[in-house]
């Protein structure tokens, strides 16, 4: 897994996903200090808030860190200017065309990684000149692709299509899964849900508790007609499900979704009316622990799982 | 992966999935002769045809083989009588309650394995006294569960819930994926789609060619309101998709599905009007080869992938 460590100048090829309402400077700095790569999630931050988080992260650690920017962000120019001004060394882009920003960021010596959920967009990202690709499976939490291709099948198919360093995402919360991703051809992993249930995550404690309580089958990928998103099946989801029962009416879905659902759920802790974005692997997450311990566990479990594998 | 080899008295913990219109005695015998466990798929056979396949398989090899029986089969009593009379050593049951047949089959010294797609049914199967469990992820072809839990997340969650030998299914067509399944805690693998594109599979050559042509995104899990099934997105699927656009009407779906769609597609080779059941990993399958070569490739790729893994 050296390619990813070399690219980002980190000890372990573990990237903490940039997650709305969850990954501020505290989480990103804790991960980077522990040998992984922490990402600040710009998707839920006003520009001045993002600048504050970047500055605090730089003060907290001299290790590499990055910012994740969803490309549908309304104030994208302003966000990118701040990232360049503050000399953030690494940017992960998602939810948009990799052609949009890759060249201009790379001119500023910023490493650019694009998140994809299909082979087609992996190839497009490589053509656009990114430094690495995150391939994210159907099981991942939050916003996701339409093809429903799972981590287990997406990773080897993307690997066969590109030559760039490849980061696997979706379903990875243990060292065993990190080893499995490596066996499928990934050079590193991006871990989301596991870091939601960390001490340093900025999301609401009640949301973290819900993640810990989740079991197999607790999440669903829905709202494909607007933007596909995986979330816990709470009361808000039941309202969405009832609309689907009647047949798909996009306008009605949009009205019911309304605005600020993710903030309400994940940041304000409204477990009934909020949108609680999390991956399928929440079913395997049983406690809220410090980010440093998550990294330690991943490495220890990885080494143990590797020792258990036998050749023929 | 010794538990599975011991249980079935086989060399490699590779099970060839029992697949309708595809896995007759030729495929099952070829896999068993090559060191794996071949399964005859009873789901598409009249009782007398199944007996013929079992007898031919016994003549073709003295190695272990089994029969896969979907428990919604209309002539289930008759099928099970034949299996017992013909002294089939191993039965895989699916699509029904593991309580129904496990005890009576085990009394006849038959090893019983149940296929599940959720942690809940894995636990129920263990309680029912089965010898091993197949946990099949969302990416698998053919009939599937409703929870949409992927192989990458299902395997470790089932592993944490049961003590029985565990067979991973869904998305496994290479030795790298077999290694990944082991890293996630599986004791063996069940391989379906890869064996569809084998010389010995009894499905139509045109269907095998479609599997070879498939790319990432070519399949979809649909018909959840009847019985969830993953298939290629052909003309028949487009008709189903058009019905969904209008809103869910189960009777209309059933009428459009009609009877014999799977036979029409997979056995008769009607690529437009037939149901072409296959897994997401079809996107990685590029040629029709003998079953023995598939087994050899799986083991060779597994060992190579294992050598490439490094510890921290």
Describe the fold and architecture.
The structure is a homodimer. By secondary structure, chain A is of the alpha/beta class. In chain A, about 40% of the residues lie in helices and about 15% in strands. Chain A folds into two domains: about 1-200 and about 285-305, Aldolase class I (TIM Barrel, Alpha-Beta Barrel), CATH 3.20.20; about 205-280, no CATH class. In chain A, the strands form two sheets. In chain A, strands 1-9-8-6-5-4-3-2 form an eight-stranded parallel beta sheet. In chain A, α2 packs parallel to α3 and α3 packs parallel to α4 (about 75-85). The model of chain A has no long low-confidence stretch (mean pLDDT about 95). Chains A and B meet through α7, α8 and α14 of A and α7, α8 and α14 of B.
CATH architectural label of the largest domain in chain A: Alpha-Beta Barrel
CATH class of the largest domain in chain A: Alpha Beta
Global morphology of chain A: globular
Report how far apart the termini of chain A are: 24 Å
Radius of gyration of chain A: 18 Å
Find the CATH topology of the largest domain in chain A: TIM Barrel
Tell me the series of helices and strands of chain A, N- to C-terminal.
HEHEHEHEHEHEEHEHEHHEEHHHH
Please name the fourth-level CATH homologous superfamily of the largest domain in chain A.
Aldolase class I
Total strand segments of chain A? 11
Number of helices of chain A: 14
Tell me, rounded to a whole number, the average pLDDT of chain A. Answer: 96
Number of domains of chain A: 2
Oligomer: homodimer
Into which percent range does the helicity of residues of chain A fall? 40-55%
Largest interface: A-B, 58 and 58 residues
Strand order of the largest sheet of chain A: 1-9-8-6-5-4-3-2
Q: Unreliable segments of chain A (pLDDT under 50, ≥5 consecutive)?
A: none
- Beta-strand fraction estimate of chain A: 15-25%
Summarize the biggest pleated sheet of chain A: 8 strands, parallel
Secondary-structure class of chain A: alpha/beta
């Amino acid at each position: 897994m050296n390619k990813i460590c070399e690219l980002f100048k980190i000890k372990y090829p573990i990237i903490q996903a940039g997650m709305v309402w969850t990954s501020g400077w505290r989480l990103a700095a804790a991960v980077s200090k522990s040998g992984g790569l922490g990402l600040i999630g710009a998707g839920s931050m006003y520009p001045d808030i993002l600048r504050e988080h970047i500055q605090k992260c730089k003060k907290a650690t001299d290790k590499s860190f990055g910012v994740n920017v969803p490309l549908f962000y309304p104030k994208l120019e302003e966000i990118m200017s701040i990232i360049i001004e503050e000399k953030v060394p690494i940017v992960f882009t998602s939810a948009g065309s990799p052609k949009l920003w890759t060249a201009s960021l790379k001119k500023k010596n910023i490493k650019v990684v694009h998140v994809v959920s299909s082979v087609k967009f992996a190839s497009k990202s490589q053509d656009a000149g990114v430094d690495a690709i995150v391939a994210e499976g159907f099981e991942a939490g939050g916003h996701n692709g339409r093809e429903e291709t799972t981590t287990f099948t997406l990773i080897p198919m993307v690997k066969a299509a590109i030559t760039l360093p490849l980061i696997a995402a979706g379903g990875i919360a243990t060292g065993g899964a990190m080893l499995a991703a490596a066996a499928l051809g990934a050079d590193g992993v991006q871990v989301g849900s596991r870091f939601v249930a960390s001490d340093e995550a900025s999301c609401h404690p009640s949301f973290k508790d819900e993640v810990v309580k989740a079991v197999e089958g607790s999440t669903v990928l829905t709202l494909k007609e607007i933007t596909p998103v995986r979330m816990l099946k709470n009361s808000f989801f039941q309202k969405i499900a009832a609309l689907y029962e009647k047949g798909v009416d996009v306008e009605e879905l949009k009205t019911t979704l309304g605005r600020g659902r993710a903030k309400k759920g994940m940041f304000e802790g409204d477990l009934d009316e909020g949108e609680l974005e999390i991956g399928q692997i929440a079913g395997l997450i049983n406690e809220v622990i410090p980010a440093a311990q998550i990294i330690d566990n991943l490495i220890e479990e990885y080494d143990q799982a590797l020792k258990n594998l036998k050749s023929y």
